[in-house]
Amino acid sequence: MPRIETDICVIGGGSGGLSVAAGAVQMGARVVLIEAGEMGGDCLNAGCVPSKALIAAAKHAQAMRSGAGFGIAPVEPEIDFSAVKDHVFRVIETIAPIDSQERFEKLGVTVLRDWARFTSPEEVQVGETTIRARRFVIATGSRPALPPIPGIDSVTAHTNETIFALREKPEHLVIIGGGPIGMEMAQAHQRLGCRVTVIAGKALPKDDPETAAIVLARLRAEGVEIIEGVHAASVAPGLSVTLDDGRQVTGSHLLVAAGRKVALDRLNLEAAGVAFTDKGVTVGDDLRSTNRRVYAVGDAAGGMQFTHVAGYHAGVVIRSIVFGLPSKAKTAHIPWTTYTEPELAQVGLTEAQAREAHGDRLTVLRQPFHDNDRAQTEDQTEGLLKLMVVGGRPVGVSIVGAHAGELIGLWALAISARIKLSALTGAVLPYPTLNEVSKRAAGAYFSPKLFDNPMVKHVVRLIQRFLP
């Protein structure tokens, strides 16, 4: 039976695992990477990449309907749904070589394409091969979870793993789940000519309610039916969904976007002495498990389920297992974005969380997109930036509006590096740009202190009297 001795064994070829493998091998470590499914994981093949490609196609369709304000006659687009999916898969195929087995083997990584199973605290079995490693990194990600709704097995229930392969346009897409995936897919399919109904206990529940309400209002205005405060009680053949208040929704296709389950079931973690729950591997701030040889990153670590978090975790783990340096993961500076139109982005604390944590020390500032000149030229004035400040430093930012996912990056840096608002107000930005929304929000913190302060006015009058 073949045996491999290595420094680092990475289980999972998604964002986190690939980042660990690439970083470690290029710095001289011996690395084995194990992936039974598609290289690139969920993000490349069934998540971030295809969803954003579909959303981009939907934006082009919507632009054709909404040109009247610019003097361009609106028209109803002719949509070839199958060709839209061709675009989606072309994007995947273009990016795939970056995550491919061939690229990683050229870097020096030993890549094994099969399932991994721990046989001891120091070894895993992959097919006929036994791998003994100094350190293991579990990066197996997660997969969509189907809720235990009676009758759901009697119909075709699409998830993010199957919806992008659907080449026939749904006449009426019913979506169970009101999180980011559900709302992104709802707007995209509505814009691509489908009728869409969303069933959600609460839509966009993890975001700031004030900013989320703007997104939901836009979706409803575009024709998406969002039914909140209810849950699916049962599903019957013919795709009839009965709600727990007795109402029925009948559609042609069903998409379930009601959470995800961490993929750990094949690993035999008990043999490795690795503690875990249904939320993921039990790890400390250093992402180390109860077995000192084993770490977990990304969704497998049981925290925030974002691709960029997995990449961040990879950097934390590399410092520990490659250089032997203490390193801990934090969450306060982690941003996230829902790629609806308008986009919805968050970093740090929401207003409610900030009020609970800081009480009267908190200052909340609002800067509307309507006051931004670039937003006016683009007719993208819907939205606002909410800035939560304590002691002159941002502790949270909520943005809803055009390119909110791009704008949130500045605030992620500010919170991560503990940058004061005075530094942001001193930055010179090109005009006209949307980022002036951020600068004006920061400046608004100081405006009352400068412009509404009698002492400042008194001092200025004195200075003016004595200036030559």
From TrEMBL:
Keywords: Disulfide bond, FAD, Flavoprotein, NAD, NADP, Nucleotide-binding, Oxidoreductase, Redox-active center. Binds 1 FAD per subunit. Gene3D superfamilies: 3.30.390.30, FAD/NAD(P)-binding domain. GO terms for molecular function: flavin adenine dinucleotide binding; NAD(P)H dehydrogenase (quinone) activity; oxidoreductase activity, acting on a sulfur group of donors, NAD(P) as acceptor. Residues 7-313 form the FAD/NAD(P)-binding domain. It comes from the Bacteria. Its cofactor is FAD. Pfam families: Pyr_redox_2, Pyr_redox_dim. Disulfide bonds join 43-48. Residues 334-441 form the Pyridine nucleotide-disulphide oxidoreductase dimerisation domain. NAD(+) binds at residues 177-184, 259. Transmembrane segments: none annotated. FAD binds at residues 52, 140-142, 299. InterPro entries: FAD/NAD-bd_sf, FAD/NAD-binding_dom, FAD/NAD-linked_Rdtase_dimer_sf, Pyr_nuc-diS_OxRdtase, Pyr_nucl-diS_OxRdtase_dimer, Pyr_OxRdtase_I_AS. PANTHER family: MERCURIC REDUCTASE. Belongs to the class-I pyridine nucleotide-disulfide oxidoreductase family. This is Dihydrolipoamide dehydrogenase. The lineage of its organism: Bacteria, Pseudomonadati, Pseudomonadota, Alphaproteobacteria, Rhodobacterales.
